[in-house]
Amino acid sequence: MTRGDGRCIRASHFYHRPMTTLARPSLAERLRLAAADIKLAHSVFALPFAILAAVLARPESGPWPRFAGQLALVVACMVTARTWAMLVNRLADRDIDAANARTARRVLASGRMSARDGWALALASAGAFLLACAGFWALFANPWPLLLGVPVLGWIALYSFTKRFTLLCHVFLGGALAISPLAAALAVRPEAVPASPALWLLSGMVVCWVAGFDVIYALQDADFDRQAGLHSIPSRLGPAAAIWISRGLHIGAFALLVLAARAEPRFGVLFMAAVGLVGVLLIVEHAVLAKRGKAGLEMAFFTINGVVSCVLGLAGVIDLTLV
Q1: How far out from the chain centre does Cα 145 lie?
Q2: Pairing with 151, which of 24, 78, 182, 302 sits 20 to 30 Å away (CA)?
């Protein structure tokens, strides 16, 4: 956006919108609006890696009923933590989103939900996350999830502010999702984290993979981000350079995935086949983007990457449980 004299309006110059005079929606409607806005289905990007890491950390002789309880808490932590992070993102960006035609219909940006309600839901999600973390201490004598719960909430919320000062915001997002396998393993068996190179390699893979597809996603807002003074690789370096950087990140992700598969002897033929399929899918993702441009973003961003995480998670869990 520009002023009449042609100068850019920076993100720090956005103003709050007037509050809507519509009646306040019911609690059920507010929950529905929030769930639709933050796209709970996008949990598919990180959740399979958390489940895979939990299975990887499970003691081979450990009782399955105990692990089932731990896994239920891991899933609860994942869903509530992501809900917190996404609501903070929408709250932090509501004025910026309102000025962007692509995002102006988001519930907080459009005023269909107040910031007060947004913060109430975000804090409730954070509280539910910490309660699930406390469950590991109460039920399984593992205090680490609760002790690290608040720092984790802070770390995953930080991404929402990074595009205001660094084009490495994509890497911060990758780091926010990459702690999910490490956190899940720590919750199931703390001593497994330093003892398993595969866990760290998987987390590194997630950093590069997520950063790579977030660079692709940011292509659609490159012009707006540049005009608003926001930082992203596409807005600062241009679309052509951004696409090559995304390709490089995905090559790194695939290399780390191969190393992870080789580092864990319990991964067998099925997981290696999934690794090969992921390599093919990443190539397809960039081929779709090269052929269709922005028209292929939805397929490249959500569909293909959702398949990547689900294929790896399912194949890894099957390999580990059938050993």
Answers
A1: 19
A2: 302
